[in-house]
Amino acid sequence: MDDTAFGDVGIPAIQQVRGFQTPHLNQLANEGILFTRMYTEVGCTPSRAAAVTGRLAVRSGMYNIGMLLESHGIGKREVTMAEVLSEAGYATAFHGKWHLGDIEESYPNNQGFDEAFFTGYNQILSLNTVEAEQGNASIGLQESILPEDRYKIDNTFITNAWVQVAEGTKGGETRQWRDNSLETYEAIDPEAQKRTLEFIERSAKAGRPFYVANWPMMSSFLPIRPKNCSVARSMLQDGLQCNVDVFVGKLMDKLKELGIAENTLIVAMADNGPMSHNSPPGTGFAETIYRGGKGDFLEGGVRVPAMAWWPGTIRKGQLVGDMIHITDLFTTFARLGGAMKAIPTDRVIDGLDQTALLLHGDAHSRRDYTFTYAGPRLGAIVKGNYKRHMISPDPVGEASGIPAAFYFLPSDPCEKMPVLTPLIHLKRPFNRMMLRHDLWKKKYPDSREVHGVPWTGLSNATQGIKELARPKLDIRELPFDPLEYIEHLDEVPFDRAMDPSIGD
């Protein structure tokens, strides 16, 4: 699920304060493990890339959060969780918010999933609509409802064609699903949930092991809703209480009905912290316990609610204080699925096998550290209870060579009080961690971002989509290819303005 602060799910007392309830998600936590130190990446695209590859997003070039017609995506060289588990005979499916690219090689059905129903982008799709334009929640995208601009020279600057949702099968065709309307957007999660339950039932009845990722859109960013669901009257709380939580209840019931609950592991978690910077109105995002949110390497940006449920295998009622990282899911699922031999050995896999943590509980993690990137730059390192910001908001201190950004997390979970003198002895240990990390990166360099023409290979592509690859001029009359810029997009500097809080 998207942009949810630690504590907003799984802890009823906090939910009472925040004005909503998630009884089924809380049941998952009560009947299994509630993690208190699940770390992710700083944004939705990086976290999703880390989940499917078991690698920090910087390694796959997926550190940019994809927006409309981004012309990039996860590259075909990456080996995904679906590809690894497919090697072990698993049926695989993806349903919901993919957000890992709009180029053909990045489609989930081209990344190892047997079937896929997916979006190339995020919830801003709900603002790319006529209704949003009418309410000024989006400006200038839906020009058909605007008066004619007498001073407009061309029609090439504003996006005119995109794909909101697509569906496809491995080795088969990929098609656009319905249109780009708000009505279609609001149908994404119900359709994804229906397909997930049907996929599970088909796989179970065929006696085939399965892996399915259901990553919900959760809610619309359009601030006008016919009826509010939660006391909080906001997007986040309504989406959790009356969409995601209801589906989790149906999922648990379906597994019990099919008699496979004891043979099925559910992991429910957020992709990153709350969208506490520049969020649309009426969203309900809040920092809750930790400071920071989406885009930050602060704990509030990367420490998220997470739980695991596996009746008969995971002991009930566990509160686990061990550190675990989103990349660990890749390696752990491969171990549980008997697919370790399919994990590639020609690159760094950051995910650690956390099977022992699931089977034996608290104090059985294989991880006590994280590296958190802010785009392509290392933002912070955590080792146990200690944290150092590698990007400092104090340029004077940073220039002097005496870093001020050391934190002892138990006494300062909001990272508001950097401690220099008592923790200066950690300067060298953190430097050693960073140097070893960089030496691995030198041996196994990060991949460059992969770019291309968006939304190619659709069997039912509209004329507008086809024209994305066809400049409206005679290229023989030009000294360059007008689409050549796509090959150089990875040379554009990382735009910190997209995440203005980085380093704060």
Description:
With about 500 residues, the protein is of the alpha+beta class. The protein has a domain of about 70 residues. Helices cover about 25% and strands about 15% of the residues. The protein contains 14 helices and 15 strands.
Portion in beta strands = 5-15%
Structural class: alpha+beta
Roughly what is the average pLDDT, rounded to an integer? Answer: 93
Number of separate helices: 14
Numbering strands along the chain, what is their spatial order in the largest sheet?
A: 6-5-4-3-7
Largest sheet: 5 strands, mixed
Approximate helicity band:
25-40%
Would you report the number of β strands? 15
The H/E string reads HHEHHEHEEHEEHEHEHEEHHEEEHEHEH
Uncertain segments are none
Radius of gyration using CA atoms only: 23 Å
Shape estimate: globular
Q: End-to-end span in angstroms?
A: 25 Å
For this entry, give a set of tags:
27% helix, 504 residues, 14 helices, single chain, 4-stranded mixed beta sheet, 5-stranded mixed beta sheet, 15 strands, alpha+beta, 15% strand, globular
Topology diagram in text:
Elements: H1 12-18, H2 23-30, E1 33-39, H3 44-53, H4 57-60, E2 72-73, H5 81-87, E3 91-97, E4 115-119, H6 130-134, E5 166-169, E6 174-176, H7 182-205, E7 210-215, H8 235-257, E8 266-269, H9 299-302, E9 303-309, E10 318-325, H10 328-336, H11 355-360, E11 369-374, E12 377-383, E13 386-389, H12 395-400, E14 406-408, H13 427-443, E15 450-451, H14 463-466
Parallel strand pairs: 1-10, 3-4, 3-7
Antiparallel strand pairs: 1-9, 2-15, 4-5, 5-6, 8-9, 11-12, 12-13, 13-14
